Amino acid sequence: MSNPLVQAFFVGRAVAEVINERVEVALTDALSELGKFDAEAKEQLRQFTEEVIARANRAAESSATGTTTGNSSSSGGSVDIQTEIDELRAEIALLRSELQKYRNTAK
């Protein structure tokens, strides 16, 4: 290779081949990682969806169980509901007064 022009051609060609191989490897690795990330994201979404549905089903079952037991009582059931409402109102009033006391002392 006494001709520098021929030598430059072969060096340039070798550089292009090496760069092409490295880009190919890097692209393959990147696509592999992207595929793995996509699969993991889909799996996490599937698990999340299953957990949400399971919790919703448990809540619906407990709600249905609570509703059926509440409806199975006799006419005294409406008195119990009114009593619960009155107790909740009393608790709210108590909390409001405690909150007002706290606000007054915080000033």
Kindly report how far apart the N and C termini lie.
92 Å
Radius of gyration: 36 Å
**Biggest sheet statistics:** none
Percent range for helical residues? over 70%
Number of helices: 2
Walk me through the structure:
- The protein is elongated, with a radius of gyration of 36 Å.
- It is built from two helices and no strands.
- About 10% of the residues have low confidence.
- Helix content is about 90%, strand content about 0%.
- It is mainly α and about 110 residues long.
Task: Throw out a few tags for this protein.
single chain; 107 residues; mainly alpha; 2 helices; 92% helix; 0% strand; elongated
Helices and strands in order:
Elements: H1 4-71, H2 77-106
Can you summarize this structure?
This protein has 107 residues and is mainly α. The protein has two helices and no strands.
